[in-house]
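Hi support team,

I've been running sequence recovery on a batch of backbones for a student project. Most finish fine, but this one hangs at about 90% for roughly twenty minutes before it completes. I'm not sure whether the input is malformed or the queue is just slow. I've pasted the structure tokens below so you can try to reproduce it. Let me know if you need the job ID as well.

Thanks,
M.K.
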């Protein structure tokens, strides 16, 4: 749910407000980038729910129906699918691909993300990174008025990626990383084909 919120167009202004709130409440940590991000991650969902509820009580509040139901949160009962069609492209979970001759479970994500040099790094940097993964589960998050499909993926650790002399990305599927950040919105990824160890990105 947090990932959905942080990747919704209407939410960034609230993220900025929440970060200001945290820095004001914890002034001695205001320059600790990683601490602030961790605190934001653990408290933003509840903070946004109360913030939007408060705004809805005001006249001419300007809160859209989309944001209203996002702040409420998804139904806890989440349907899972083995296949899902998005913008004319069929995605499968890996278990579905394992019993078929075609392959539709490979995905690629380009994301602006925080990079931490070590556990002691208090001021990490943000930059664009590419991630290669395999879909393990397809979730359809129900926000009562609309649904948002999301993929739970096994993402390949950066140590498992090598670009060969022909420009192909070689992927070691045994090197799984990013276990705390497995989810991605279905609308954010490109489908890729994994050919043994070679990974070829195809356009949508």
């Amino acid at each position: 749910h947090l990932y959905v919120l942080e990747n919704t167009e209407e939410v960034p202004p609230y993220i900025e407000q929440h970060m200001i709130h945290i820095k004001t409440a914890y002034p001695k940590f205001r320059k600790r980038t990683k601490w602030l991000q961790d605190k934001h991650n653990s408290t933003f969902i509840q903070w946004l729910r109360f913030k939007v509820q408060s705004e809805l009580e005001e006249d001419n509040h300007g809160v859209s129906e989309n944001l209203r139901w996002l702040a409420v949160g998804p139904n806890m009962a989440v349907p899972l699918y083995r296949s899902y069609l998005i913008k004319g492209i069929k995605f499968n979970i890996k278990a579905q691909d394992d019993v078929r001759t075609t392959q539709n479970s490979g995905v690629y994500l380009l994301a602006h993300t925080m990079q931490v040099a070590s556990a002691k790094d208090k001021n990490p940097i943000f930059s664009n990174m590419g991630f290669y993964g395999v879909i393990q589960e397809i979730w359809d998050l129900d926000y009562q008025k609309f649904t948002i499909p999301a993929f739970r993926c096994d993402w390949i650790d950066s140590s498992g990626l090598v670009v060969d002399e022909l420009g192909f990305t070689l992927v070691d599927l045994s090197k799984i990383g990013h276990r705390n950040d497995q989810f991605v919105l279905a609308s954010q990824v490109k489908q890729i084909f994994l050919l043994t160890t070679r990974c070829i990105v195809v356009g949508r």
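--
Follow-up from support: It reproduced on our side and the slowdown came from queue contention, not your input. The two ends are 25 Å apart (CA to CA). No action needed from you.
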